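Annex B. Sample input.
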Amino acid sequence: MAEPTLVLDGPRWRARAQAHRQRVAAWTGPHRERRRRGEPHPVWDFLFTYYSHRPALLERWDPGPGVLLTGDDADRFLDRPGYRRAAGGVLLDPAELPDRLRGTAAFVHRLLTATRSREPRLACFGLHEWAMVYRTEQPRHEAVPLRLGSAGTDAVVESQRISCSHFDAYRFFTDAAAPRNTLTPTRETQIELEQPGCLHATMDLYKWAYKLAPAVPSELVADCFELAADVRELDMRASPYDLAAHGFDPVRIETAEGRAGYVRAQAGFAERAAPLRDRLIELTDGLLGAAR
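Annex B, continued. Sample output.
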């Protein structure tokens, strides 16, 4: 059984929980308000729809493994997987986690370790979003106009080399665009192909963090979410959509200057993602070690 490495009394863990809720409320609050008004958002809805972690779960705080929570109300955590009573309080013990979560940890560990082993590739220029509307009359965001129109968008796709390595982006390519990609990502080749320069692989650190909840410190989940939000903004600013009405200036990847700016931003995000990926790898290693 795991022994605590940190003890938090009631006032301290409640303060951390409150700080976490306040931090993520910067995103969950506006999202709830837009939903109340029935107002979709082409950039930010993705963080709550494609990523299936509900706002209430994002706001919920967990300390992560090895933290002993004391105080009368620490018993509330016993309703969550992996928590048990310990001397003087309540503790999340990796050995008590359900098998399904350890299976997720094993996959995440393999995927992120393989991704970390590769050099970032920074020449995709965000063309995955363009490939999703190539030669189609039904773009994914129908309420948002294409910045260059259909013909102009198609011309950009035809003038560039598409090299998307991320299956969950590639699977949304139009039928006409898919053969233009230099790779054919599949779910089975995901571990072989993902690389740290990919914006979607970086955003997915948030997915892997919340899929391991409650075994991940909520502060780490929030760090991954904040990075995903920043990456999502670049992803859509570099897309073919005209988002001026929503306050976003385009990254014009159809120009050499725009492509250079995209690469600089992409490299910066890869650098920001690296320590978060390392923390998730270390955490999954600990979860798997507890099961052995």
